[in-house]
Design a protein that fits this description.
The protein has nine helices and 50 strands. By secondary structure, it is mainly beta. It has two domains: about 15-120, Phage tail protein beta-alpha-beta fold, CATH 3.55.50; about 230-820, Beta Barrel (Maltoporin, Chain A), CATH 2.40.170.
C-alpha cells in the first residue's frame, strides 16, 4: 500500500525524524527468530494464486488479498518494477519468492499475520539475513483500499481541486471516510454529515431530497451537492426528486464556506462533494444484507477488479435495492440503484473512464410532517403523535427516476503537467401528488390544506476542462490550476395546486374526505415552468510554497449565468461576476498549521416567486481564521475555525405559500467550529465536531422599512450550539480480536423554525450505539453488525422546511447487517 506524503517536503525535527525512522524500520523488518517461532503456520498455508505478470506493486497487493495477509511497503520500492506473475497453489512464502525474483527485494513475516517488503542486502537470498528488530506501529493504507479502517484522511481535493494535504489547505475541509459510513450504517447523507461541525439537516421538500444548513445558511436549491467535483442536481424541474443513494460512495468531503470559485453554482455555506468508488486493480467483492425497524430491508453489492489479464481495463459495479415502511402511518418507500464504472488505462499516464448511474424511487411524501400551532402572535410545537400522517393515503406519492451518464479522461504530459476533462448528463423525471398543509394551525390544531400535483422533467449537461502543473521559480514552488466549466439545465414542470375548503385537525385527522378532482377548480393555482439555464465559468488558481513552511493560495473565477423562459420567450436572468479568493497558511512544525482566508461567492438564481419570476442570484463574502493539528504520526487530526459569512439576496420559503420562495436583503453568520477525527490508540477511533453559531441573523430586509420585514430575526434551522461525537474500539488481538463496539451522541440546541421567528424547534440529544464482529472464513471476511439509533427513544424534531412545516425525528431504530467480503 502506498503512503501519503506532503507536497511541502517539510523537514521535521531530528528527534521527530529519528522516531519516524524507527517506526518505518519496525514496520518493514522483523527478526528471523520471531518469524521461525511464531509465523510458521502463516507462511505455510497454501492458497490458489492467479496473478498476472506486470506491475510488481499491483501483483503484491493481489497476493495480499488472496493470502489474507496484511502487506506493507514503501511505494518507491515497487515503482517501475515488474514480475512474471504467479499461477497455481503455493504457500505464502513460496508465492513471495516467485513474485520477487530478480527485483532486488526481500520479505519478512510478522507474528501479527502481516508481510513487509524491503530492499535485500547484497548477497542475500532474501530470507535469511534479516536483522532482529521488534515490529511496532501499524500499516499505512491507500485511501481507496476497501479494508482501510482509518477515520482520518490526510488529503482532500474539494477545497483546491488538487490532491492537497489538509494541513496545507487554508480552508476548513472535513472528510467522512468509508469506514465511518460502514460503522454508522449510513443509508442517507444526513447521517454521514452529522459528523461534520456546522452541518444541520433541513427538512426541505417534504424530506424527499437532501437538504442541509451549513454555517447557518440553507443549501436547498436545485444543486445541493457535487459528485466527484461535478454538479449533482437534486430536482426534476421544481419537483422533489429523491435522496441520493450512498451505495457507491467512497467518502464525503465538505468544504466549509463559499466554494463557487472552483464549482460555480454553489451555496455559500459550504460544498458537499460525494467522492465515488472507482475501479481497483485488485479483485474485491462484497455483499451486504441490512434489515431493521419498520419493515426495513436493503441489499447491496460491490464488485471490482480487472477485466483483462494485463489490468489495463478495470470495472466496478455497485447496486442497492431497498424497501421500507415508516414510523409514520401510511408511508413506505421502494428504491433501486445501480452504478457501473469502466476504466481503461490507455498508458502509464493516460486513462479513460465511463460511468453510469440509475436510481428509481417510489415513496410517500408527507411522512413525519406536522405544522406549528399558533399561540397568540407566536406559535409553538405540540406533542403530537410521531405516527401522524398529514397527507391523503390514497393520493400522496412521489415517483420517478434519475439517470447519470458520462465520462472523464486525463493525460499526464510529464511528472509536472497534466490535463483532465469531464462530461456528464443527468436526467430526472419526477411526479409528485400530495395533500399539503396550508400554514400554521390554530390553538385547536385546525389547519387548512390543499392538493398539489407536479409533473417535472429536467435534462442537465456539465463539462469541465482542467490543466494543472507544477513549476519552480527562484526556489519557490507553484501548483497551478487553469480551468473552465459549462453547466446547462433544461427544466419543465407543470403545477396544479387546489385549495380545500374547511380544515384538517392534527389531533383528530380524518382522511379521504374529498378527492383531487372533487376540489373546486376555481380555487386553485396552475402554472408551468419551461426554462433553460446556461452557466459557464473560467478560473485560475496558484498554490505557492514559500520559504519557512509558508503556503499561499490565490485565485479568481469569472461566471456568466443566463436563464431563458420558453413560456414567455423572454430572458429571465442574465448575470455575470468575477469572484476572488485568497489564503495564507503557516506550518511552523509538522503538527501545527495556522491559516487565514478570504473568499467571495456567486451563486444560483434562488427559485421563483408567486408571479413565476426568477429571483435574483445571491452573492456572499467570508473571512476565516483557523488552526489545524495532525498528531500521532498523522493518525489524528483536528481543525478549529472562526468565520464571518455574509450573504445577499438570501432566498427563503415564502411563509404565506410554502411551495414558493421569496428573498430578503442580507444575512450574516459568525461562529466557531471544531472538527476532530482519527485514531487515538490502536483500535480506538473517533470522529466528531462542535459548532457555536453565536450570530446568524437577517441583517437587512427589503420590506423592513414598511414594517413587514424580518430584520434582526434569527435564521431558521440555525442552532446556537450543535455537535456530534462518535467513537469505536476494535480489539486487535487475543480471543476478542474482530469485536468492535462504540457509540455516540448528537446534540442540537433550540432553533427558530422560520424567518418570521414565529415558533421555536426544541433542542435535543440522541444517543446511538453500535457493535460488530468480524471473522475470517478462509479468504472471506464476514462481519455481523447491529446499530441502535436514538437509544433512549427521545421525542424530537429533525427540523423545519423554513416555513410552517416541522418534521419529526425517528424514534428508537434498530438496524442489523451481515456483510461478506473477499
Amino acid at each position: 500500500m502506498t503512503s501519503h506524503t506532503s507536497r511541502s517536503g517539510l523537514q521535521p525535527s531530528r528527534l521527530h525524524q529519528a522516531i519516524q525512522h524507527i517506526l518505518l524500520a519496525s514496520a518493514l523488518t522483523v527478526s528471523a527468530a520471531a518469524y521461525a517461532q511464531t509465523s510458521t503456520d502463516t507462511a505455510s498455508i497454501r492458497h490458489n494464486y492467479h496473478i498476472s505478470g506486470g506491475s510488481l506493486g499491483q501483483a503484491l497487493r493481489q497476493f495480499a488479498t488472496n493470502s489474507g495477509l496484511l502487506y506493507s511497503a514503501e511505494a518507491e520500492l515497487t515503482e517501475g518494477k515488474t514480475t512474471a506473475g504467479l499461477d497455481g497453489e503455493y504457500t505464502a512464502e513460496d508465492a513471495l519468492k516467485k513474485l520477487l525474483v530478480g527485483t532486488g527485494l526481500t520479505y519478512t513475516f510478522t507474528a501479527e499475520g502481516a508481510v513487509a517488503v524491503r530492499v535485500a542486502e547484497t548477497g542475500s537470498n532474501g530470507a535469511s539475513t534479516l536483522p532482529a528488530v521488534k515490529v511496532v506501529g501499524q500499516a499505512v493504507y491507500d485511501s481507496s483500499d476497501p479494508y482501510n479502517p482509518d477515520y482520518s484522511l490526510p488529503n482532500a481535493s474539494t477545497a483546491t481541486k488538487t490532491d492537497t494535504p489538509i494541513m496545507e489547505t487554508p480552508y476548513s475541509v472535513k472528510a467522512v471516510p468509508k469506514q465511518v459510513l460502514e460503522d454508522q450504517q449510513v443509508i442517507r447523507l444526513e447521517k454521514a454529515l452529522q459528523n461534520v461541525a456546522g452541518v444541520v439537516q433541513e427538512a426541505s421538500s417534504g424530506l424527499m431530497r437532501d437538504s442541509f444548513v451549513i454555517r447557518g445558511f440553507s443549501t436547498g436549491n436545485d444543486i445541493l451537492s457535487y459528485r466527484d467535483g461535478s454538479p449533482y442536481p437534486q430536482n426534476g424541474g421544481n419537483a422533489y426528486s429523491t435522496k441520493r443513494d450512498p451505495a457507491n460512495l467512497e467518502r464525503i468531503e465538505v468544504l466549509k464556506g463559499p466554494g463557487s470559485i472552483l464549482f460555480g453554482r454553489a451555496e455559500p455555506g459550504g460544498v458537499v462533494n460525494m467522492v465515488t468508488k472507482q475501479p481497483l486493480d485488485i479483485p474485491y467483492y462484497a455483499l451486504q444484507q441490512q434489515f431493521g425497524s419498520f419493515d426495513y430491508y436493503r441489499t447491496t453489492i460491490d464488485a471490482t477488479g480487472p477485466v483483462t489479464k494485463d489490468s489495463n481495463l478495470l470495472y466496478r459495479l455497485n447496486a442497492a435495492y431497498e424497501g421500507a415502511g415508516s414510523f409514520t402511518d401510511f408511508a413506505n418507500s421502494d428504491r433501486f440503484f445501480v452504478a457501473p464504472v469502466l476504466k481503461w488505462n490507455i498508458g502509464q499516464r493516460t486513462q479513460f473512464t465511463t460511468e453510469f448511474e440509475y436510481q428509481r424511487f417510489d415513496e410517500t411524501p408527507g411522512s413525519a410532517r406536522i405544522t406549528a400551532l399558533r399561540n397568540g402572535s407566536h406559535a409553538y410545537l405540540s406533542s403530537l403523535h410521531r405516527n401522524l400522517f398529514t397527507g391523503e393515503p390514497s393520493f400522496n406519492s412521489n415517483k420517478g427516476d434519475r439517470i447519470l451518464a458520462g465520462f472523464n479522461w486525463s493525460h499526464g504530459f510529464n511528472d509536472n503537467w497534466s490535463v483532465s476533462h469531464r462530461f456528464y448528463y443527468t436526467g430526472i423525471n419526477a411526479e409528485i401528488r400530495q395533500a399539503f398543509l396550508g400554514g400554521l394551525a390554530d390553538s385547536q390544531g385546525n389547519v387548512s390544506r390543499g392538493y398539489e400535483h407536479q409533473s417535472a422533467r429536467t435534462d442537465n449537461y456539465f463539462t469541465s476542462l482542467n490543466l494543472t502543473g507544477k513549476i519552480n521559480t527562484l526556489g519557490i514552488k507553484h501548483t497551478l490550476l487553469f480551468g473552465g466549466d459549462y453547466y446547462r439545465t433544461d427544466a419543465k414542470d407543470s403545477y396544479d395546486v387546489r385549495f380545500i375548503s374547511g380544515t384538517f385537525n392534527l389531533f383528530n385527522p380524518v382522511y379521504n374526505t374529498v378527492g383531487f378532482d372533487g376540489v373546486d377548480v376555481n380555487n386553485r393555482i396552475t402554472f408551468g415552468v419551461d426554462n433553460t439555464t446556461s452557466w459557464y465559468g473560467l478560473y485560475a488558481q496558484d498554490q505557492i510554497e514559500l520559504p519557512h513552511n509558508v503556503f499561499a493560495l490565490g485565485g479568481f473565477r469569472y461566471d456568466q449565468a443566463d436563464q431563458y423562459d420558453h413560456l414567455t420567450s423572454s430572458v429571465a436572468g442574465n448575470d455575470n461576476r468575477v469572484s476572488p479568493r485568497g489564503g495564507l497558511l503557516w506550518r511552523p512544525i509538522p503538527e501545527l498549521s495556522l491559516y487565514g482566508s478570504y473568499t467571495e461567492n456567486f451563486g444560483a438564481q434562488n427559485g421563483i416567486n408567486g408571479n413565476g419570476q426568477t429571483l435574483s442570484p445571491q452573492t456572499a463574502q467570508q473571512w476565516e481564521l483557523g488552526t489545524k493539528t495532525e498528531l500521532l504520526n498523522g493518525k489524528f487530526s483536528a481543525t478549529l475555525a472562526y468565520f464571518d459569512l455574509t450573504k445577499q439576496n438570501l432566498a427563503v420559503t415564502d411563509p404565506n405559500n410554502t411551495f414558493l420562495m421569496t428573498t430578503i436583503g442580507a444575512a450574516e453568520s459568525r461562529g466557531l467550529e471544531l472538527d476532530i477525527s482519527g485514531e487515538l490508540l490502536p483500535g480506538w477511533r473517533v470522529i466528531g465536531g462542535y459548532s457555536h453559531l453565536f450570530f446568524a441573523n437577517i441583517t437587512r430586509d427589503v420590506g423592513f422599512d414598511r414594517g413587514i420585514g424580518n430584520q434582526g430575526h434569527r435564521l431558521p434551522n440555525a442552532p446556537h450550539n450543535s455537535g456530534n461525537v462518535f467513537s469505536t474500539y476494535e480489539f486487535q488481538d487475543g480471543m476478542l480480536k474482530g469485536l468492535k463496539f462504540g457509540g455516540g451522541v448528537t446534540v442540537l440546541s433550540k432553533r427558530e423554525g422560520n424567518p418570521l421567528n414565529k415558533y421555536e424547534i426544541p433542542g435535543y440529544a440522541a444517543l446511538n450505539l453500535m457493535s460488530s464482529y468480524a471473522m475470517k472464513v478462509g479468504a472471506t471476511k464476514v462481519t455481523t453488525q447491529l446499530n441502535v439509533d436514538n437509544l433512549l427513544d427521545k421525542y424530537f424534531y429533525a427540523g423545519s422546511n423554513g416555513g410552517a412545516e416541522v418534521y419529526f425525528g425517528a424514534p428508537r431504530t434498530f438496524l442489523g447487517s451481515i456483510r461478506i467480503e473477499y
